[in-house]
Amino acid sequence: MSAASEEVSDVTAHGKEPTLKRVLGPKLLLLFIVGDILGAGVYAVTGTMAGTVGGIVWLPFLLAFVVATLTAFSYLELVTQYPQAAGAALYTHKAFGIHFVTFLVAFAVVCSGITSASTSANVLAQNFFGGLEINGWMGNPGQGVITAVALGFMILLAAINLRGVGESVKFNVVLTVVEMAALCIVIGVGFFVMAQGTGNPGEIFVFNDSQDKGLFLAVTAATSIAFFAMVGFEDSVNMVEETQNPEKIFPRTMLTGLGIAVLLYMLVAVSVVSVLTPTELEGIREAEGAALLEVVHKGSPDFPIDRVFPFLAVFAVANTALINMLMASRLIYGMARQHVLPRQLGKVLPVRRTPWAGIAFSTVLALGLILYVTSDPESNIVANLSGTTAFLLLCVFTVVNVACVVLRRKRDPHRKVFFTSPGQLPLVAAALCAFLAGPWVGRNIIQYQIAGGLMAIGVILWLITWMINRRTNDGDRVDS
């Protein structure tokens, strides 16, 4: 979610809030969408997916793209009908009008940002130390050191967030180019290895059932994991008030961005399979966020690119984490200002004008998450955090797809329609999202525990706020 649309702004001389400046054309919007989708996702999940399905690791990416695209159709129908920067929470409230349900959706989005940033912190730490090790600057660190760096990174993000980070379009363009360059390096290494005749292109269509799940369950589980790499497109709807002629350019731009992302992901998957042997694919599951680093290291032993790649990955992953924490802190600020969370969480620094209470709250949750998942040395830290993010967003997407159907029935027949999801695709998308969120995909129970614990914290805070509002007759201020 764009932090810009949530920032506190000065009122005009007439006492009205100024509107946001429409600076995004189709090219800049495309770069924003691609940059938001790319990042930590593909680094975090590729190793786990390869360890689940073997050579056909590209297939779950493709299936996740299909589910994401069907959901994107619903988002496009809604954003062109309601071009406001509140996203899933707005659509939920428009469709159902139940403030508590709106709160649950909004807080689930907050939690997904926190779990995604926590995933990024661990992936960043792994790639950072991987770069130090490859360059011979440091040996293989223990998990405690990696965890300490991940925690320190989250604190650094909080400090940057407190100071005030403007998400300028030019900065986003630079970060997107870096993210794409890092993935292109992986793709280039893979195709270089195949051109030398030393790769394993024949393994691309080979299914390796290392966990004895069977083809359907294994691919379904991997698709659920891959979904983490496809999220981010939904954040772009929060830029609608800063986009030129959004009703016209949003549909084509969002779908193009999704297409570019899945193409890069599938080429990365082909490169992973081409460079690593079947045995290495099975073992790379435990490499967590360092899978792509292993591909570059093995595939280009005579080139120094493997010494640079880890730090490019760190840069890309850091951008993802920063955007996530910006979004989470400002959503918390917004809900506190609407009196659905304790108003103390809406406190703003008087000089920097950043939501320090929301930043502190989201950072504490992220630190607690990292400590919780690393307390079990046998657990797959990155898989559990990324899986929790995917689960939360799959639940949100299920609600948004149903809301699309409900709002279609409420649509004003005299209002111009810019985009409509074909037929009953929103219901199909809702069913697919709900299916991928279920326990039958092999999701680790800890992911439900993390998601449930975070949502429980939110509900407790909501109940406290509700009781305070009743005593003070402040009421619920969520706009309808």
Percent of sequence in beta strands? under 5%
The end-to-end distance, rounded to whole angstroms, is 20 Å
The average pLDDT score comes to 82
Query: What's the main sheet like?
Result: none
- Helix percent reads 55-70%
CA-atom Rg in angstroms: 22 Å
Order of helices and strands: HHHHHHHHHHHHHHHH
Structural class: mainly alpha
Could you say which overall geometry the principal axes of the C-alpha atoms support?
Answer: globular
Low-pLDDT runs: 1-20, 476-480
Topology, element by element:
Elements: H1 26-37, H2 40-53, H3 58-81, H4 87-96, H5 99-134, H6 143-163, H7 169-195, H8 215-230, H9 246-275, H10 278-283, H11 291-299, H12 305-337, H13 356-374, H14 381-409, H15 425-437, H16 445-472
